[in-house]
Amino acid sequence: MVRMRCSWLALFGGFALLVLGTASPAERPTVRVAVAANFLGTLQSLRPAFEATHPFSLSFSSGSTGMLYAQVRSGAPFEILLAADEDRPAQLERDGLIVPGSRFTYAIGRLVLWRPNATIAGDQALLLPGRIAIADPALAPYGVAALDFLERSGRLEAVDDRLVRGASVSQAYQFVGSRAAAMGLVALAQVLDEPVSSRWIVPADRHVPIRQQAVLLRPTGGARALVAFLQSDEAQAAIEARGYDRGTPP
Question: What confidence tens digit (pLDDT) does each residue in 83-104 have?
């Protein structure tokens, strides 16, 4: 693989890359994971079970799938990418930038319309006053799904001038949480603790599917162990409980 001369940190200096995790002892190698913003909380919840049963520690870098994809292509030292779509992992596979045969769907995301302190019965809530937060479709698969839903529902023209776009679905969620937007189309996993009345799960057949795929970037033992763990019944049940549909491992 040809590496660009400039470092990936310099190339993407305009973005803040969130790195989580503490240093691990030398006898516990660290697995460097690039994880889509919507799945970060779920992966954090899975971390104790993985580290308790494997001789590895996990280190997370989180952001929009588009941002992480660009960093991977520029040589960022990740061992595994947990994307929020299938297109970018497939492109990395076509370009020979992953371990052959490693691409699989670890979760299927669910889109939800969330308006705090309100009762939502359906997409008519989009016509209520206030700005609507979505993830930027150019960067984030949840933004693609949100825009597709608005187009299919015939609401896009009515709300287009009220849309605010976050760099990731996490930022879209933050816009609503901080009241910079009145409501948002975000990931169900982000609002499971919110009152059920304040969220409406968009039917899966009303937007493009959010197939969240993983790829191995380096064939390390730790990365392979994490892939096997994510495909296990234990992890898949936990992923489902966190607001996703189960993935479809190869």
Answer: 999 999 999 999 999 999 999 9
Would you list the DSSP string of the chain?
-PPPSS-HHHHTTTSPPEEE-----TTSPEEEEEEEGGGHHHHHHHHHHHHHHSS-EEEEEEE-HHHHHHHHHTT---SEEE-SSSHHHHHHHHTT-S-TT--EEEEEE-EEEE-TTS---SGGGGGSSS-EEEE-TTT-HHHHHHHHHHHHTT-HHHHGGGEEEESSHHHHHHHHHTTSSSEEEEEGGGSTTS-GGGEEEPPGGGS--EEEEEEESS--HHHHHHHHHHTSHHHHHHHHHTT-EEEE--
> What pLDDT digit, counting tens, does each position of 207-219 carry?
999 999 999 999 9
Query: pLDDT by residue (tens digit) across 33-67?
Result: 999 999 999 999 999 999 999 999 999 999 999 99
Q: Is the pTM of this model over 0.90?
A: no
